UniProtKB/TrEMBL annotation:
Assigned keywords, A-Z: Cell membrane, Membrane, Transmembrane, Transmembrane helix
Membrane topology: Multi-pass membrane protein
Organism: Alishewanella maricola
A Pfam cross-reference name: GNVR
Cited InterPro entries: Bact_polysacc_biosynth/exp, GNVR, LPS_length_determ_N
Presence of the UniProt keyword Transmembrane helix in the record: yes
Superkingdom field: Bacteria
Domain Polysaccharide chain length determinant N-terminal: 13-113
Boundaries of every Tyrosine-protein kinase G-rich domain copy: 264-303
Subcellular location: Cell membrane
Name of this protein: LPS O-antigen length regulator
């Protein structure tokens, strides 16, 4: 009895497969037409997409080479006084620099200082022959140099800092390899020259930002420690305070003489010769598969609907 049921089930499965192939064969022209239509549309769409180029730099965190060996007593006094002895390790300093690179405040200031509103918000391509950006006329009128995009309140024709920041985040990436500690910073844009220039400027800007922060903090610490020295006559305390000043002076010296303060360039950014995206072949293949599957589903649904 069991063998008969199994044989009957196999026979039913065979009939079902035959029906599926029969339905697909009957609707072959619809499947072919739909697949070709999807593929052709994908080709035109892929060709309409502008090339995007990527420029990347590899950075190494700069080691804290001040050579400081802070005794426990001196470190404790510094902590009580609220003085930073440069004890923030290279890893912590690198982590802070990466978070600053991603921050809205830093990126917004970078955009303002370099006037990047047009290449970020209005560009829609790049002309290799003239090395000029192709601007969207519905967003920015190059002839009158006016923003003409139509937006609803509270937005204005000229993009705000926050809008520009959000768009820049899509072009910008910074990541650290947890194993090697190396940091990769990259920018994607229609213009490979702009992408490379922005990478270089970002590296310079973050080094300068970190240098200025620590320089300002060290100078404030020195001023505070000098004021404490003037208020005490205890020899041991004065000795420790002078030691603290010495360490802060080393920080000031390093900040003034080292340009690559937190990141050292290992592999500099270059002007990309090949596009990073779009992958036009992949777009066409996916459209071909989508068209085939969709048309086969339509054919099968119609076949079994009519059969009922």
């Amino acid at each position: 009895m069991t063998e008969q049921l199994q044989q009957q089930q196999l026979a039913d499965d065979e009939i079902d497969l035959r029906e599926l192939f029969k339905a697909i064969w009957q609707g072959k022209w619809l499947i072919m037409a739909t697949t070709v239509l999807f593929s052709v549309a994908a080709v035109f769409y892929a060709l309409s997409l502008p090339n995007i180029y990527k420029s990347e730099v590899t950075l190494a965190p700069v080691a804290d080479d001040s050579g400081l060996k802070i005794p426990g007593q001196l470190g404790g006094l510094a902590a009580l006084a609220g003085v930073n002895l440069g004890g923030m390790g290279g890893g912590d300093k690198t982590g802070l620099a990466i978070e600053l690179l991603k921050s809205r405040d830093f990126i917004t200031r970078f955009i303002e200082q370099n006037d990047l509103y047009i290449p970020i918000m209005a560009a829609e391509g790049w002309d290799r022959g003239s090395d000029k950006l192709v601007l969207d006329k519905k967003i920015y009128d190059e002839a009158t140099q006016q923003w003409v995009r139509k937006v609803k309140a509270p937005f204005q024709p000229k993009p705000s800092n926050l809008e520009t920041f959000e768009d820049f985040k899509k072009l910008f990436s910074v990541n650290q390899d947890k194993t090697s500690g190396m940091v990769k910073l990259s920018v994607e844009h229609y213009s490979p020259y702009l992408a490379k220039a922005w990478v270089d400027k970002l590296v310079k800007a973050i080094n300068e930002e970190m240098r200025e922060r620590e320089l300002t903090e060290a100078e404030k610490s020195i001023a505070y420690l000098n004021s404490q020295i003037a208020q005490t006559n205890i020899a041991d305390v004065r000795t420790m305070l002078f030691s603290l000043i010495e360490e802060q002076t080393k920080t000031v010296m390093l900040a003034n003489v080292r340009d690559e303060y937190v990141f050292k360039t290992i592999d500099p950014a270059v002007v990309a010769e090949k596009k990073a995206k779009p992958s036009r072949a992949l777009i066409v293949v996916l459209a071909f598969m989508l068209g085939s599957l969709l048309s086969m589903m339509i054919v099968l649904v119609r076949y079994f609907s009519n059969k009922k």
